[in-house]
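@here heads up, posting the sequence + SMILES for the calcium ion run so it's all in one place. Ping me if the SMILES looks off, I pulled it from an old spreadsheet.
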Amino acid sequence: MKKGLTLVAVSVSFLINMVLWNVSNARANEGQPLFRGIHPVVNSCHRLLGGIVDGRWLNQEEMAKLLNGEEIYKFYSQTKEIGEARGSKAKKEVYISGEQGYFLNFGLLLPEEAFGISAEWNPLPRVPRVYTNQLDLASFLPLVKSLLDREDRNVDGLYVKEALTVDLEGDGQLETIIVSTNIRDKDIEAISKERSILASGFFSSVVLFRNGASDAFFLADDSKLVSYYSVPFVSDVDGDGIMEVYIVKTSLIAIPTFGFALMDEQILKVEGNQIKMMLRMFTNRT
Ligand SMILES: [Ca+2]
Ligand SMILES: [Ca+2]
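bot reply: prediction finished. Complex structure tokens:
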């Protein structure tokens, strides 16, 4: 997240909608957990996202009950390990929206965009290349535009906000993840101040470009609600060697002045170019 956004971003960064994508083909050992035990995952705000238990994804509520405060978490930026800390038991929070979440105390401050996982495997088996240079980011724009063209859609003022490349499944072909929107910092500020604004014409999306297949498709896109996406991390949260994509959706409407709101969790999976809604992240749970 860029510096200019910090003030606003702090007030909205809890309005998250977690989407974890598991981009994979069927696993050879499907149904057989690779790692036994409890493996919670937290974001940089010390909030529980859920986690893996005996190879299965549990949501935050299910996971909260299993934590005993003895778990050791390793923290990662998008590209490297940055520290280690013991996490407390999960403390339930009720947000201003009426929804619930779980907070863990680590006794340390974490940088934005970090994530933590209590796991013995390396969640970054392949290190993403994260693009920050404006020219590099702009070079991904034609890809998003061609995808919109294909669907006969036109978005004014589109730009690329985040982009990274990584080989998600380790087949030697790089995938590219592109976050694009036409929402500018000034829009975020204006909408945050005057929540009654019924803004229209805004668009935000996350595109996955499978370089090997030379095909691109939307992992997420939204032109109805005023919200924007970000991809704080891509990592292997279940230790199967295939990296999942974590997508945060931040709503700009109905931002509470105080307190937090946590939006519904959606768990989806990509298979080839098909996007499937799943109850849980991993196929052995459906
Ligand atoms: Ca690949
Ligand atoms: Ca994985």
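MO: The CA atoms of residues 137 and 199 lie 26 Å apart.
MO: One more: The chain is about 15% helix and 35% strand.
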